[in-house]
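Collaborator request, handled under Task 6.
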Amino acid sequence: MSVGKKYIFIMYAFDANAIMIEPIKFRQAKTITEAWIKCYKHLNRSGYAPILYVLDNEFSSVLQEAFDKSGSHVASPDLKWALNVWIALSAAFTRCLYGAEVPRSL
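Structure tokens returned to the collaborator:
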């Protein structure tokens, strides 16, 4: 349930070709880490647990500890990946809002 949640955590899993989205209430380290853990567990159950993460912004020591516990590593950011994920996510939201056809005014 996403009542009262103002932000979204977005994770793109390259091998699974999946955009993971988790609504979050706050942009605090604990909340972001909990969202990452939830997405990671879902991918792990599906057989696509990533071991390398490319982040488009800063991350906390709390999230670093979660990466370490899972055996994951963090690479330096490549903003093209983040941009491509954002474009795909925007297109998906637009399709959800307006149906299969996107109005030309958008």
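The cover message to the collaborator said: "The chain has one domain: 7-98. The mean pLDDT is 79. Please let us know whether this matches your experimental observations."
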